[in-house]
Amino acid sequence: MTAYLSARKINKSFLFGGNKIGILSELDFDICEGEFVSILGSSGCGKSTLLELFAGITRPDNGSILLCGDDITGQSGHLGYMPQEDLLFPWLSTEQNVLLPARIKKRDLAQARAEIKRLLPVFGLENHSKLLPYQLSGGLKQRVALLRTYMTGSHLLLLDEPFASLDAITRLQMQEWLLRIKEKLELTIILVTHDISEAIKLSDRIELMDKSPGRFIKTYSLSQDLKNNPTEFEMLKKEIVARL
Ligand SMILES: Nc1ncnc2c1ncn2[C@@H]1O[C@H](COP(=O)(O)OP(=O)(O)O)[C@@H](O)[C@H]1O
Ligand SMILES: [Mg+2]
Question: Ligand 1, from 10, 20, 43, 48: best to mutate by most atoms within 8 Å of Cβ?
């Protein structure tokens, strides 16, 4: 299979107190259509920086980002990006928040509204369309943020720790739900997380990142058999902990 999204020889540094600090070094990455890949790494290793590069929010110092072979380095708007802090506008209802990508892209709003009406039940939000963010639970807010991300029109979603702020039970429910949504809407997902169980449970593949500078150090391909086998699951978890 050819890659849907690729990163080639990405270098990224930031200026810190007048010094140039290398954050990502010679980083390569590929994901195929329909794949679910989790990026696991300790805090500060450059996971969010990498997603921002994919999303075109920032540019690499050198290297390129390719979408279906086309160079999209530094271009935003191609992929659905959900940042670490969900930024729902507090004064906008669910419906208005998820309509924003269509407004920004100057899409036909009647058509976008019809699409949202069809999607609200898929996201379990049919009874919450008129509510403001403060009236929603944490899990529901994340669903709104995910629907808004999906409304960018991309089937490739970049999710930066989407469930980090949720309680344990809601987090488990949202993980199951994300897998269902992925199948239903035929999504390709890159998930950044520091939750090892979450990564094993959800992904087809885990890419482990090390820091200073950030780079991938290990790939784990995950079979359904491994996920269903508690002993193998725990062993893999231990191995990953030891490497992080
Ligand atoms: N805009 C920025 N300017 C300077 N340093 C930054 C900037 N963004 C991130 N960094 C630094 O880059 C490193 C990686 O950050 P980040 O990608 O947020 O890590 P992670 O998401 O893996 O926790 C951190 O040391 C962080 O302080
Ligand atoms: Mg981060």
Answer: 48
* Domain architecture of the chain: domains with CATH: 3-79+154-243 (3.40.50.300), 87-153 (no CATH)
Residue 27 Cβ < 6 Å to ligand 1: no
End-to-end CA distance of the chain: 30
Q: What string of pLDDT tens digits covers the 244 residues of the chain? A: 679 999 999 999 998 888 999 999 999 999 999 999 999 998 999 999 999 999 999 999 999 999 999 999 999 999 999 998 868 999 999 999 999 999 999 999 999 999 999 999 999 999 999 999 999 999 999 999 999 999 998 999 999 999 998 999 999 999 999 999 999 999 999 999 989 999 999 999 999 999 988 999 999 999 999 999 999 999 999 999 999 8
Alpha-helical (H) ranges within 108-187 are 109-122, 138-150, 168-185
Q: Cα torsion for 210, 214, 215, 221, to the nearest 10°?
A: 50
Ligand 1 pocket check for 51: Cβ under 6 Å: no
Ligand 1 mean position to 46 CA, how many Å?
A: 6
| Residue 16, ligand 1, Cβ within 6 A | yes
User: pTM to 2 decimals?
Assistant: 0.95
